Amino acid sequence: MISRRNTKLLLRCAIIVYFISWVLLTAWRNDNDTAVYLADQRFTVGPDFQDDRSVVHAPVKHPSKVDYVANRDRLSFEVGTLSSSSNNSRESESQDRPMYSNRIINPHPFHFTITNHEACTNAIKEWSMPLRLLILVKSRPEDIFDRQQIRLTWGRVQNISNQLTLTMFLLGQTANETVRNGVFHESIRFNDIIQENFIDAYTNLTYKTMMGFRWVAAFCPFASFVASVDSDIILNLHNLLQRLADRPRYSFAEGSLKTNWTPYRDAEGLYKKWYTPVELYPEPTYPPFFPGGCYVMSCDVATTIFQESVHVRFLPWDDVFVGLVMRWADIVPRDGKGYQVYVPLSRRTLIRLALQKSIAIIAKHHAKSVDNRLILVYQKAMQKFNSVCEGTPMTDLEPIISVL
User: Fold this and answer.
1) d(Cα 271, Cα 156) in Å, to the nearest integer?
2) I need a labelling partner for 147 at 20 to 30 A (CA). Which of 84, 167, 265, 298 fits?
3) Residue 94 in 3-state DSSP?
4) Where does the record say this protein resides (predicted)?
5) 154-200 pLDDT per residue, tens
C-alpha cells in the first residue's frame, strides 16, 4: 500500500513531467510555426541593422512572428528571383494557398530602420496649414541623384496656392556599407527618407509600397491624399492638385487604370522579368490596377490597403498586388488621364509641353549626376502656372554631395 508521503511524491513527479512535456511541445510547435512562416516569405529579409535612437517603430499586428524575424542577429542576405527553377520547391505550397483569406496569409515581417516619423507634423506646424498631399517615392538606396533631382524640382515641402505637399522617399536595405552610411547622413540632412529592413530589390517593391502605406497609417493619417510615384517620374503638382480639387476625400483611388491584363507565363521570353507562374498567380487575368509610375488615393484607402494586405497572397508586382488588395477591400479604382505620359527625352519642347498638360511624365534621370537640363525644362514649364508656390529654398538643397 502506497503511503501518503509516497503519493505526494508521485504527484509532484507527475506534475513536473507534465510541465516539461508541455514546454517541449510548445517549443516544438513554435519552431515549426516559425519555419513555415519563414519558408512562406518569398524574398528573404536582410540583416537587422541597428536603429538610430531617434527611430520610432510603428505598431504591427503580429508581434510574435515579426519580433522573431526582426530581432535575429543575422538573417540571409539572399534575394529571391522568379525564375522557374527557384520556384519549383514552392509550387505545391503556393498552389495550396488561397488568393484571399480572412486569416493572415501575408504578414509584413519588417520593422523601420529609418522613420522620420515627425515629417508630417513638422510640415504642418511650419506652414500652419493641413497637409493636402503626401507623395511617396519608391527609390533605391544608391539613387541619390534621382532623389536630389526630385528635391530640386517638385519634391520639396511646398505650399502651392495654400495647399501643402510633402514628399517622402521609400528605401529598402543594401549590403553596400558606403551607400548605407550615405543614406543615413542623407536622412539626417533632409528628414525625408523612410526605410525598413528588407533588401532593396525589384522583386521586393510590394514590400516597399506596403511600407509606405504602413507609415501613412502610423504617422500621417491626417493627410487628405496620398500619391505613389516612381523615381523616374516628373510631377506637375499644379495639375495634380487641381485634379484633386473636386475629388472625394474618402474611398477614392485614381490612376491610369489597366483592365483585363494577363499574367506573363513565358519564363524564357522577352518579358521574363515579369514571369508569373500559375502557382504564383492562378487566375487568367489580373484585377484592375494602376501602373506603379503614378497614382493617387485618399488617405483612408492607403491605410486600408496596408491593413487588408495581410489577407491577400503575396505577389512581387506591387502595382498588381495593390489592385488585388483593392478588389478584396471593395475599393473601386477610377481611370484618370495624364498619370503616365511617355516623352522622348531628346525633345525638350515635347517634355515641357507634356509636363504643362499632364500630371506625370516618365523621364529617367542621370544615374551619376543631377540632370540640369531636365531641371531647366521643368522650371520653364512651371512658368506657365500663376499659382503662388513656396517651399524649401533651392540653395538649401544643393550641397548634398558635400554632406555625403
Assistant:
1) 35
2) 298
3) helix
4) Golgi apparatus membrane
5) 998 999 999 999 999 999 999 999 999 999 999 999 999 999 999 99
- Site of grid cell 495647399: 163
Q: Cα(141)–Cα(372) distance, rounded to whole angstroms?
A: 21
pLDDT tens-digit series, residues 268-279:
888 888 999 999
CB 198 within 8 A of CB 207: yes
Q: How deeply is 112 buried, as exposed, middle or buried, from its count of CB atoms within 10 A (0-12, 13-18, 19+)?
A: buried
> Which residues touch 59 (CB under 8 Å, ≥6 apart)?
218
Asked if the model's pLDDT at residue 76 lies above 60, the reply is no
Asked if residues 109 and 67 have their Cβ atoms less than 8 Å apart, the reply is no
Cell numbers given for 392: 524649401
Residue 76: partners with Cβ closer than 8 Å, 6 or more residues away: 44, 46
Contact 289, 332 (CB under 8 A): no
**Radius of gyration over alpha carbons of the chain, in Å?**
24
Nearest residue to 151 (alpha-carbon basis) of 401, 394, 404, 403:
394
Q: Which residues contact 25 (CB under 8 A, 6 or more apart)?
A: none
> Cell 503511503, residue?
3
Secondary element (H or E) of residue 212: helix 205-219
Number of other residues whose CB lies within 10 A of the CB of residue 34: 14
Cβ atoms 157, 123 nearer than 8 A = yes
**Residue 330 φ then ψ, to 5°:** 60, 40
Least confident of 224-228, 322-326, 342-346: 342-346
Q: What's the angle, vertex CA 314, arms to CA 97 and CA 268, rounded to 5?
A: 95
pLDDT in tens, 50-66: 333 233 333 333 333 23
H-only helix segments in 231-272: 237-244
User: Who wins on pLDDT, 75 or 367?
Assistant: 367
